[in-house]
Amino acid sequence: MMERVGGPGHFVDTGPFDPDAGDPGRGEAASAWRLFLRRFLRHRLAVASALVLAALYASVPFVEWLAPYGQARRNGDFIHAPPQGLHLFHDGRFVGPFVYPYRAELDLQTFRRDYRSDRSRPQPLRFLCRGDGYPFLGLFPADRHLVCPPEGGTLFLLGTDRLGRDLLSRLVYGARVSLIIGLVGVSISFALGLILGGIAGYFGGAADAAVQRLIEIVRSLPELPLWLALSAALPPTWSPLWVFFGITIILGLLDWPGLARAVRAKLLALREEDFVQAAELMGATPARVIARHLIPNFMSHLIASATLAIPTMILGETALSFLGLGLRPPVTSWGVLLNEAQNLAAVQLYPWLLWPVVPVLVTVLAFNFLGDGLRDAADPYQ
User: Fold this and answer.
1) pLDDT, mean of residues 63-82
2) Which residues are CB-neighbours of 381 under 8 A, at least 6 positions away?
């Protein structure tokens, strides 16, 4: 029942109050995570980047199944073969995904193989077929592939290298190493940055001075020569797996000072707040105060730092491998593949050797756009 109170247009509901009924004049209260998700979904470029990165990382355990050929499969008759075109129609009729076979002819003037497509014989691709064997997830042998070359034919959608290896298959295999090395390296650098920056910002005094001097020493060293020196110090007798872990640790140990300084500066400003003093008076340990009360208050900065640090790690591995001081064959990464494109003459003759640049650019840009979207969504003042 509504009664008029005061001037015109003012009414009071005199009926009983139901605490479980929603307020028709207000929307339902949204949780912090729901508000975060709403802000993030409005950033379309960040959402698209998240989908691209999710697809890349979801493919990591299944690279053997996705690649048409094995990682080390050589095709001696198709050395430096150009990319084969993928077609759907032949002579005006739909055939499905197919390629035209190559015919290699030796050019006696340039002593190069000249590959020509035989457009009279379309060769349909095979799907979910048997091919080169591999250990599926490292657990049991398998030989099924998503797509395979035609019976008695070839499938070189991105061309081949100097040993006749399919470049597309090697790009798919290289994604596993390059993507994982970014996550592992960032985990190491973030652990060091949060711990040392948290100690310096929360305790201050001698601890702060010691951490600051350590940061200044690390930051004063030139980054690229230090990477080269530490990478060259890895024993050449190490297995490719140990070299992988060595490069990852090197990248992680040299990337933490920036985050540590940011954490220290934020904790110096927050440690005098009332909620921090209240937590200390209630008996919270310094570790709990830092982890549960201080760090969540600048989570947007940490998210942006993480998404920017991962592509930095990927580029670091790519640069070291490109210079021949990073990962080495038989390990395949995007940097190792770019190492084969150092020769400008080879690039001029075989430009498809530069294809590994594309996934590096796509991954780095996707992480940058994703970082922008996550930072904007996590910032309560946006």
Assistant:
1) 88
2) none
Q: Distance between CA atoms of 127 and 146, rounded to whole angstroms?
A: 5
CB 131 within 8 A of CB 69: yes
**Closest by alpha carbon to 356, among 326, 325, 314, 328?**
314
CA distance 127 to 148: 6
Report which residue type is found at 320.
L
Long-range contacts of 206-209 (CB under 8 A, 24+ apart): 208/264
Give CA–CA dist 40/48, Å, rounded.
11
Domains and CATH numbers, the chain: 84-155 (no CATH), 169-378 (1.10.3720.10)
Look at residue 102 in the predicted model and tell me its pLDDT.
85
Confidence tier at 9 by pLDDT (50, 70, 90) = low
Confidence (pLDDT) at 1: 52
Whether 18 shows a pLDDT value over 70: the answer reads no
Q: Is the pLDDT of residue 22 over 60?
A: no
Instruction: Give the burial class of 93: count Cβ atoms within 10 A of its Cβ; 0-12 exposed, 13-18 middle, 19 or more buried.
Output: exposed
Q: pTM to 2 decimals?
A: 0.78
